[in-house]
Amino acid sequence: MKALLAATLQSGDYVGFTFFIGSMAMLAATVFFFLEMKSVDRKWRTSLLVSGLITFIAAVHYYYMRDYWIQNGTSPTEFRYIDWILTVPLMCVEFYLILKAFGAKIGLLWKMIAYS
Asked: What are the respective helix, strand and coil percentages of the chain, to the nearest 5?
């Protein structure tokens, strides 16, 4: 039964608290990006969608990292790499979408992904 309960932060657990604040900030950013999609020019909508996906993935991973930290007291390295494997290519897509509005070519996207 204990495994089904969510991990609880203890007073003074600054690492766990930081993971929690990070997950809540990313979740708030996700909501903001998704709600703002209709209020921006059409050329920026996909960019906001990708931003929302990045922050949502990060929010979920930070939440799991908090639980891992609380239960084990060690750095959740595996979760960080999983997060990076998903979000870094998406960030490259995001940068490309922004630069595309100013004339960037698709080759730049593939260079950014390869370099990342």
From this structure: 80, 0, 20
Q: What is the Cα–Cα distance from 91 to 87, expressed in whole angstroms?
A: 6
| The two structure tokens encoding residue 45 | 């909508």
Q: Which two tokens stand for residue 40?
A: 């921006």
**Global confidence as pTM:** 0.83
How do residues 38-70 score in pLDDT, each as one tens digit?
A: 999 998 999 999 999 999 999 999 888 888 888
Q: Which two tokens stand for residue 1?
A: 């039964």
Spatial contact of 53 and 87, defined as CB atoms under 8 Å apart: no
Cβ neighbours for 78, distance < 8 A, ≥ 6 positions apart:
none
Give the Cα separation of 9 and 63 in Å (integer).
12
Q: Which residue type does 46 have?
A: T
